Amino acid sequence: MLERFELETLFALADELHFGRAAARLHVSTGRVSQTLKQMERRIGTPLFTRTSRTVCITPAGQQLHDDLRPAYDQLRAGLQKAMAATGVVSGVLRVGYTTLWCGDLVVRAADVFRMRHPDVDLRIREVLIHDPLGALRAGELDLQLSEFPIDEPDITTGAVVLNEPRALLVPADHPLARQDTVSLEDFAEAPLITIAGDIPDYWQESHFPSRTPSGKPVPRGRAVTYWQEVLPEVSAGKGVTAVCARAVHHHMHPGVAFVPFRDAPPVQYGLMWPVGSESARARLFMDTILEVAEAARTPR
Hints:
Layout: H1 4-16, H2 19-26, H3 30-44, E1 49-51, E2 56-58, H4 60-87, E3 92-98, H5 101-117, E4 121-127, H6 135-138, E5 144-148, E6 156-165, E7 167-172, E8 193-196, H7 202-208, E9 221-225, H8 231-236, E10 242-245, E11 257-261, E12 268-275, H9 281-298
Parallel strand pairs: 3-4, 3-5, 8-9
Antiparallel strand pairs: 1-2, 5-12, 6-12, 7-10, 7-11
Helix pairs in contact: 1-2, 1-3, 1-4, 2-3, 5-9
C-alpha cells in the first residue's frame, strides 16, 4: 500500500516532469522527492520515471500506475475537502514569521489572500531577527517561517524555495569597488567582511559570508554585528563590506554606501520551514497561498 505522500509525489512528478517544480508543489526539497520516488520504485519493483540531467519522463509502468490510482485519489481528496469545509476544520491560530522586509512584503500579501479564503483562521505575523533565525520555531512561538536557506537541522523541516534573489556587495561609497558595474566572489578578499553574530549554523554563515574565495584566498573578517541596523553605519564608516540580497537597495538605502551586484554568485534562496512533525492543515494551506502569490508576482502581466 502506497502512503499519501508517495501518491502525491507520483502525481506531482507526472504533472510537472520536473523534480524542482514537483518539490515546490509538495513544499519539500528535491532530495525528498527523489528519495520518495526511489522508495516507491523499490517497493513496486520497476522504474516509474526515467531521468537525465535535462529531462524527466514517466515510464509505461509509471503511467499505468498513475492512471489507475488518480481517480480514486482525487475522489478521496475531494471528500476530505468537503468534510473540512462542512465541519470548519480550517480554523485556529497560525503564526508565521519572516526575516527580511521583502519576505515580509510577500507574507503580508499572501496573508490578505489567505484571510479572505479562510476567515476562521487567526493568522498572526511577526518578524524574526536574523541573529537567531531558528529560535522562535524551536521555542514553539511560530508554526511556519519564510527566511534564508540553507537550513539543514534535524528538528526543522524545509519546504519549497519561494524566492531566488540576486546577490550584491554592500561597500563604502568611496571604495574602489563602488566604481565597478559588478563584482566577483574573488573581491571578498579586498576588504574586511562584516558578518552576523548569533545563534546561526556554521554552514549558513559560510554560505552567506564565506571564509575563502573560490580560488582559496582568505577573506578578512570585520566586525560581527547582531542586528541588520548595525551593518549600514559600519559599512558607511569604511569598516568593511558585506554580502546582501540585491533587493536590499530598495529597502535599506543609507548615506555613504553603494550596492554593487555580483556577476558570479548564486542567488540567495528564501524558503519555507517549520518544526518537524508540526505541519497542520492551516500551515499547508498558507504554504499553497504564498507560493501562488509569489508565482503571480513573477508572471508578466
